[in-house]
From TrEMBL:
InterPro entries the UniProt entry points to: 6-blade_b-propeller_TolB-like
Name by which UniProt lists this protein: NHL repeat-containing protein
Gene3D superfamilies: TolB, C-terminal domain
Length: 95
């Protein structure tokens, strides 16, 4: 891994480029060095590709809730390449 002298500032908040209580990251070296960030208090998992200025919401981001498109205080995420899936620890929903 190589650190850049100048990067993107990320401030606390609930906008797409902001994080609030990030609890975990997963770096996927197989997918163009994509970083998955668990943004716990914004109830979402975001995906950030190397050399891109914006991230994408991978899961959640639809407010707190029990629906399949909602999370409550997620804690961790991993990528399962063998099964082509990602696994989320959704603490608030106990799933």
């Amino acid at each position: 891994m190589k650190w850049k002298e100048f990067g993107i500032d990320i401030a606390e908040g609930n906008e797409l480029r902001s994080l609030k209580s990030p609890s975990s990251i997963f770096i996927d070296n197989d997918d163009d060095k994509t970083i998955y960030i668990v943004d716990s208090e914004n109830d979402r998992i975001i995906k950030w590709k190397l050399n891109e200025n914006d991230n994408k919401t991978l899961a959640g981001g639809n407010g707190k809730g029990k629906q399949m498109n909602q999370l409550i205080y997620p804690k961790d995420v991993i990528i399962d390449r063998e099964n082509d899936s990602f696994i989320i620890s959704d603490y608030g929903n106990k799933r």
